Amino acid sequence: ERAATNVLIDSIYQKASIPVCFIPLVISQLKKQGFYWRERDPKQSTDFSFSRFLVPKLMGYKGWAIFMDCDMLCKVDIKKLWDLRDEQYSVMCVKHDHNPTENIKFLGEIQSNYPKKNWSSLMLFNCEKCKKLTPSYVNKASGLDLHRFNWLKSDSEIGGIPMNWNFLVDVQKSMLNSDPNMLHWTLGGPWFNEQALKGDKFSLEWFRARDNAIKLWD
After folding, report:
1. Chain-centre distance of CA 45, in angstroms?
2. Where would I find the H helices in 92-155?
3. Exposed, middle or buried: residue 198 (CB in 10 Å: 0-12, 13-18, 19+)?
4. What's the pLDDT tens digit per position in 176-188?
């Protein structure tokens, strides 16, 4: 999904009013550094399904960091998201109520249903308060324990952020007339051939962002 990643990064750069730094979570690199060694889970649809929870460790358990899936597109200044940090919480996210009815998602991957689904697709980590997320824990914990935030003492440590920061394309039908800050193609985005011909307004936004990025790269 390099196309998705590069367009997402450019969409953030073009609108950011503060300095930003991107660190892709590349499994081969994390393995060489000794941070990641677990075998791929049959239910794992992306390489970063579990590696995302290493972010606090990679930050030295200091400060704040944002994790986001690569299948997103940022439409506003990322500073507006950064300014939502609240020190009382260990992690902050959009608290979706997503109960998928399909069994298969993009590229034939298994669609799993569990409480707090998609909450971990965009997280603001208060890294100092996430010290339980050691490499040892991240590599042995179950996917459900990680994605359901069972590594926290209670759900009161999870702060909520507005829904428009993680708009699930083709899922949140009731928000179609809204203007989301962050688009998220959790069911597969227009960079896949199967999705490219849909021609909906959000796909067109992604193609415009891609074309603008290509002009800059040239």
Report:
1. 13
2. 135-140, 143-147
3. middle
4. 667 899 999 998 8
